[in-house]
Amino acid sequence: MAVSIDLGRKDNGQPALLDLEELLATRLLVQGNSGCGKSHLLRRLLERSAPHVQQAIIDPEGDFTSLADRFGHLVIDAAEQTEQGLALAGERVRQHRVSVVLNLEGSDIEGQMRRAAAFLDGIFAVERHYWTPMLVVVDEAQLFAPSGGVEVAEEARRASLGAMTDLMCRGRKRGLAGVIATQRLAKLAKNVAAEASNFLMGRTFLDIDMARAADLLGMEKRQAEMFRDLERGRFMALGPALARRPVALRVGEVETESRGAGPGLMPLPETPPEAARALILTAAPSEATPRPRRAPAASAPDILAQLAAARPAAPAALPPPTAEEEAERRRAQLAILRTVMADPGAAFRPVQSLFQDFQLRCRIEMLPGRPLDLPAFRRLLVLVLAGVTEELEARPDWAEALEHAAALPEDRQGAYLLLARAALEGAPCPSDLAIARVLGSVSRGRGRAAVEFLEKQNAIACRPDAAGRRIATLIGPGWETAPGDPEAAAA
């Protein structure tokens, strides 16, 4: 069924139409400086397409929550949800075909990146029979797919950029049509922007942005200056869903109100100078009493002399711990970490959060010796998530499993060790959901992808038995798991 969305009017007075079916296959990039009308354009597109296609809006400023009143979108306040909860919400949104607005307004930049990544991962990893058409609109996309370094944890940046890359590069086969809007193309990751085939370019002033906009639209460099002259609400359009040649259009009116509009001019209050002085300069209650005068500051030589006199004697060097002490300390660390991971939701928390919780509990237990650093903690965490017991570690052949796992990427070692543990214990092959849990996910697709990766790396080989259950063989050691149902629930 062909559906055309009326975005407004072209300069020649004809309707500016967008082919919705073509958009679902080719994706859209909207670019323009702040105040050029990007959000207004997205709102027009969302309003006109709402009756025809499911929608998900990643909304960093809460501008699109008003769609709920008019079109019945579900508004999810991301600040009130965990990352695990948002991943589950993403899966259920696709399963039940509910249009949704993910409101990220109450989170800081890093929190927005983590929560948006979790939600997009849930949408992306849903089972194949739920791959129905869905329009995924990401406003201020440069926040979630930055082209350079940002002042957030590297883990959050990589998760957000990976989710955006999956949306734009691999989303088409899953029915996901990415629509991304950004203030500056230079701030948006190139591998994300490059996947769009439709473009709506608004007003911009920087030479580099004008040049890139002109290049994307196939215009000559001397024509790039025209982007400075575009009025608010006017865009240059190009793409298989819009027009085969660059055309100018003006966006039409919208039905819902935006919370992103700037405040209008209003007259200043008529406040007499004395009243203004009393309002602004009156001391706070805690400052009503005069503060005591400070003693004169000591000179730098006096401070250095006092510090030298107060310096404690260097402690005597402690002897290195014995092998028995190291083994006891490691057993205590594993016990503490297993206590942390006893919470059902702990496997889905960020590693940095688990690390802080683990360090705090070690201090409470007054564990002696040097604290673990983050890489050592990650190695310990993989063992706990894989369910490795002290008895299993004592077996001579377990060292071989650790050696093979060390040759794999860090984020796949847990899946390999889980399979190795099942093989050594003669247990059934773990399900996709059980493998995903070791990787910190609730998506069967994530577990299935990990198994496929290990097969491509020649680390394991999988085959079905007569009943269709999976048997995994570890290449090298030759160990085999018992048959197990890949679709079973996690233990």
Give a structural overview.
By secondary structure, this protein is α/β, with parallel strands linked by helices. It folds into 3 domains: 4-251, 3-Layer(aba) Sandwich (Rossmann fold), CATH 3.40.50.300; 327-371; 386-491, Arc Repressor Mutant, subunit A (Orthogonal Bundle). Helices cover 40% and strands 14% of the residues. It is built from 18 helices and 13 strands. It has helices at 20-26, 38-49, 67-71, 83-96, 109-124, 154-170, 190-193, 207-216, 273-281, 300-310, 323-340, 351-364, 374-385, 390-393, 398-406, 410-425, 432-438, 444-456; strands spanning 4-10, 15-19, 28-31, 54-59, 74-77, 100-103, 134-138, 176-182, 198-201, 234-239, 243-251, 460-464, 470-474. Strands 2-1-11-10-9-3-8-7-4-6-5 form an 11-stranded mixed sheet. It has a two-stranded antiparallel ribbon with strand order 12-13. The radius of gyration is 29 Å and the shape is globular.
